[in-house]
Each structure stands twice: as structure tokens, then as C-alpha cells.
Amino acid sequence: MVGIIGAISTATAPGKWRVVVADRPSLKIVSSVLKMHSVLEQNVVAIQLITRNRQPYPEMDAVYILVPCADSISRVIDDFKVDPRTGELVQRQYARAHLFFTGKLSDSLLAHLRSSPAAPFIKAAAELYIEYNPIESRVFLTTPSEQPFYALYSPHALNMVGSDLDAAADRLLSVIVSLDIQPYVRYYRPSASAPYEILGSTLMTESGATATCPRIAESMAALIQCKLNDYYSHEQSSSNGRGKRSNTLTPSVVIVLDRSVDLYSPLLHEFTYQALAHDLLDLNAGNKYVYEAESANGHRQTIEAELSEQKDPIWEKLRHWHIGDVSQTLADQFERLLKDNIGVQAAKQASKKLTLHEMKAVLSELPEFKRLQESYSLHIDLASKCLETINGSSLVMLADFEQEIVTGRSADGEFVDRTSLETRLISFLDDSELDAPDRRRLEEVPQCLSVNDKRAAVNLQRLGVPTDREEDFSGMPPLNGRYKWDAVTEPTDGQKRPRLEPAVKCIVAEQLSNTLSTELFPWTEEAPPECIPKHILNINATSLRRPKSPMPDAEKKGVVIVYIAGGITMSEMRAIYELADTLKRDIYIGSTHIITPRGFLDDMKSLHLKMLL
Predict the structure, then answer these.
(1) Is the Cβ–Cβ distance between 576 and 319 less than 8 Å?
(2) Cα–Cα distance for residue pair 97/124, rounded to 1 Å
């Protein structure tokens, strides 16, 4: 955010009016962290899309914010056209150009720009490294294409996997540069897939043809390491060694995973507020909830509310709570809101004549009370819809049964007999009240343990999961050479039984305690020095959306970034917030996209299809 505002405000002399020109991807990035009025406040007369016919401003400078691609460069050059015969300028869209790119501009494009007729009019060119989407303070997306899961894992998208990984690595580099860290990089490499080449092993598809199964995590880690080395080299040559690693107490680390590391998180029902809202309800644009409420004049009106941690403190506080705790808290807080509001109490005592002081107090509280009332109205409606869906279905029993399948234990901690599980599985699948999506999810959960369905086997192989292992329902599956974890949450008032935690929570915890396996999670190059004091766990948390305050190197503790190629779940996002809050560490999670259980099933189903992208 600060980098964008700084680029716009300092590009020209103070007080001079200017124009901002952007392409659609860059404008989307800017609008995700800034309101347009914040841009216009920087003496900006207009924000123009570079792909449209634009009004010329030949007396004003233009600040370009662009994706570093050939199309953007060509359009900049076209804004300053020269007659090839006479060499005279025939079109001048703006007085001068100040170019800012969202990511790294390649040497070839830079050379093309320097040799173009527009070169004399370009007064500055810089890279902002903002080519990612910080959807939350600890969550970012590097979406490289419209179908990232298919592009990475389908045998029919082999021509796309390289470009998608490269684009995702560029965006991950932007995150690293934005956080101003020099991390070590490690990645998930299960020994079961050790013989595979990077981006080159063969698997049998459903039709009998062979297809390449990419080592996604290793490939991604190699790309980001290469891009980091290039960036450090450039920084050292241009800023007297600025690209060298700082002397921190604990080094920063990027851990690159693929979706095969944990196939349970996308499938298991999670009863936290945010996860339920995305799982059970149709949210517009991924975070907008539409509901009906009564207006001040007594009429019903349709409201679209954005579920955002920046705009909604109730959502920020409650989103990771169990729905049972959320429901009780909302009821208690709303009752307290009514009890503490002077205006409400005055309405109850309407027969009593109010003093001028009391009337002034009532009026002063009205705007704030209305805002809080609208916010509570939203969440009471949203939580009620979630609870209605749960109570009108077999979700609670189904979720408990899922946990018994993946943990091999009942709610009281006793081991569950395999035969009993199989009998109950058949009973659940025959239940007419179980809707189709939940039935599909329940079918996939045991298939992650022991695969019998041919199509599911092919698709799980695409994720690097061996499908010929012995069936076993007692505890976690015997995945030789793969990451195993057996962490469960403690019960809360709303959540009555322990539940399996996402693998990513255990991976990060093991990284911070120096116990993460170097065989399953090797380093791309050198390993960091083993000088991390385990008792040092406190740090002032920062955010991908907010600037960091400078801190002396000796007081810094390293950042941990977990990147999962192929989608992240709400439960994995929650796990990162919990770790960051508990350990007071800077921990972030990112991916190509966010996946919901239904979306994950659709993605898995589509892997064997030939899609035109």
C-alpha cells in the first residue's frame, strides 16, 4: 500500500496534477489494498485503463502501474508515436511517463523499452513487487491462471504447468520482497516419489495412456530459489551489498508444499464460522453475503455485505471460532449492546421527559449504534443460516464419523473397529437425507486412506498419493516415505470432540522447533545455520496489508511463509493465524487459490477431462 501511494505521489513535483494509467491486473491489485479516493487524493485527475481509448493529457505526466509483460510495454510505446520517415513526434498522450511495474521486468523488455521512440519521454522506471493478492493480513494468493488446480495436476495440461509455476513463483517473489526478507527455501519431497524427475514422471491415466506427473513442490521451490538468487545478485550489484542476508536471530524460511501433503483438510467438515460460511452458503465473489433486513421505515431490504477483516471487526474476531461459540457470543454481545445504549433505554422510558443533556447523549450515540446494529444484524443472520443448515441435516454425525475415519478413534478416545466403520460408512451413504456433495466428500475421505475407485485412484496419483498401499483404518495411514501427523484440537464449549488439525500446522510448528525432517523437506541450496534459540518466540506481528516498522537486525526473528501449490483451505488459514497468535511470530500462508470442499471435489473430478483453457 505504501509503495503504491509513494510511487504515485513522488513521481512528479509536489502539487502537480498527474494521471494514473493501469492495466486490469494492476488495477485489481491496487483496488484490493486501496480505495480509489486514496489514489485521487494524490493530485490525480483521472485513473485510466491502458487497454481503452483514453483522453490525452499532453500537459500532464502519467504514472503507469503495469504488469511487466510485452503487451503493456507495447501500449506504453504507442502512447508516444514517432513518424518513422521524419522522426517527428506525431502522438503524445502525456507529457512524460513514470513507469512502475508490479513485478520484475525482464531484460529483453527493458531493452525494447530503452530502444523505442518512447525512451526520451520515460523519466523513471521501477519495480514495486506487488504482484500478488493479500486477501487477508496473513493470507495471499498468487493465482497464475483461471484453472490453477487443473493446470498443475491434470495430465491434459502439461503444456501449462511450467508457465503457471513460473507465474506463481514471480508472485511469490513479490511477497518475499514486500516483506523485506532473504529466506532459505525448502520443499516437500516424499521419498515415495524420489525417482521422479522434476516435471517428468509417467503415470497411467484412466484410458491407459501415460502422462507426466509433475513434482510440483520441488519445481516451484527451484523456480523461486532461482528468482531469489537473481534478485539478490541485482540488489548487491546496484546497492552495495543490500541483497546480502541480514543477521537475524532466526532465519526466514519459505516452505513450498503441494496439495498431496494433506488431502483431509479439503474434504473434512470444519465447524468454524468462516469455514462453514464458505462451505454451506453461496457467497458472491467469495466474500460477499446477501441477506434481507428491516430498514428504518419498516420495509424489508436486500443487503450485500462484505466479510472483510479490514471493514468488519466482528468478522475478524469470530471467523475462526466454532459456530456454537459464535452463536452464544453474538447473542450475549447484542444483548449488551441494547442494554448499554442510551437511546434504547430512553425509548423504554418514553413516558419520562428527557433532559437536554440526555437527549444530546441519545443523538450522539445514534450513528455508532446504527453501525453496530447493522453489523450484528449481518452476523446474526449469517450464523443463523449456518446453524439452520446444520440442524436440518446430518452434518454433525457425519463430521464426527469423518473424524473417526481419519483418526481411528471415537469421541472418547477409544480405537474404532474397522468393520464397524465400514458398516457405518455404508449406512451413511444409503441415507436419503445426505445431499449429493456431502456423499461425494464422504466417499473420498476413506479413498484417501485406501483407494478402490479407478478414477479416484488416477486423480490421487496425480497428487502424488500412492494408491496401492494396504488398507488400514486404525490411526493415520501407513504412508511410507510421506509426511505423517497426528495432531488433534482440544474440545471447546462449542466443539465437543477432538479433531484432526491440518498438516500445515504441524509442519510450521516443527519448522520453528527445528524438528522438521530434512529428508521429507530438503533445502533447495544451503540450510540455515543451526543457531536458533528455541526459547525466543516473541515478535511484533506484521501484516501483508500494513507496513512494517523498522527493527534492528539483532532483534529480528525470521518470517515463515508456507506456500501450497494447488489451493489452501479455510482450516489451514485458521491454523496459521492460531500459530502466529500463540507464538507471536510472523507466519503467512499463500497458494494459487482458495478451495472449498465442493470446489475441491469438482477440481478432482475435472482432472481426467480435456479442457480448453
Answers:
(1) no
(2) 7
Cβ atoms within 10 Å of 90's Cβ, excluding its own: 11
Report the 3 state secondary structure along 383-412: HHHHHHHHHCCCHHHHHHHHHHHHHCECCC
**Nearest alpha carbon to residue 151 among 137, 138, 166:** 166
Residue 441 identity: R
What is the residue-wise DSSP string for 502-544? PHHHHHHHHHHTT-S-TTTS-BSSPPPPS---TT--------S
Which residues contact residue 550 at a Cβ distance below 8 angstroms, ignoring those fewer than 6 apart?
none
* 553-606: pLDDT as tens digits: 434 678 999 999 999 999 999 999 999 999 999 999 999 999 988 888 888 878
- Determine which helix (DSSP H) or strand (DSSP E) holds 366, and give its type and residue range: helix 356-391
Radius of gyration, alpha carbons of the chain:
27
Q: Give the count of alpha carbons within 13 A of 289, CB side only.
A: 24
- Give the closest residue to 501 by CA, choosing from 187, 189, 186, 270: 270
**601's grid cell:** 471435489
Residues 295 and 582: their CA atoms lie apart, in Å, by 41
Q: What is the mean pLDDT of residues 441-460?
A: 52
User: Residue 400 carries which side chain, given as an amino acid letter?
Assistant: D
Of 211, 228, 282, 224, residue with least CA distance to 255: 224
- 9-39 b/e with 16+ CB inside 10 Å = b? bebbeeeeebbbbbbebbbebbeebeeeeeb
DSSP string for residues in 120-167: GGEEEEEE----SEEEETTEEE---SS-HHHHHH-TT-HHHHHHHHHH
- Its sign, for the CA torsion 290, 293, 296, 297, is positive
At residue 313, the pLDDT reads: 92
- What's the CA gap between 151 and 165, in Å, rounded? 9
Residue pair 248/553 in contact (Cβ under 8 Å)? The answer is yes
Average pLDDT, the chain: 79
Q: Which cell numbers hold the place of 385?
A: 443460516
pLDDT tens for each residue of 168-190: 999 999 999 999 999 999 999 98
Beta-carbon contacts of 413 under 8 Å, excluding residues fewer than 6 positions away, are 498
Q: Per-residue b/e over 558-567, b at no fewer than 16 CB within 10 Å?
A: bbbbbbbbbb
The label of the residue with cell 473424524 reads 403
The single-letter DSSP state of residue 119 is G
Query: Among all chains, which residue has been given the C-alpha cell 487459490?
Result: 593
CA distance 247 to 361: 55
- DSSP-based three-state secondary structure for 235: helix
Q: Dihedrals φ, ψ of 563, to 5°?
A: -120, 125
pLDDT of residue 532: 46
Distance CA(308)–CA(191), nearest Å, equals 41
CA distance 444 to 432: 18
Q: Which residue has the cell 480505495?
A: 35
Backbone φ, ψ for residue 232 (5° rounding): -60, -40
- Looking at the DSSP assignment, which residues form a beta bridge with residue 300? 294
Contact 55, 90 (CB under 8 A): no
- Best CA proximity match to 191, nearest among 458, 517, 445, 519: 519
Burial label for 8, CB within 10 Å (0-12, 13-18, 19+), is buried
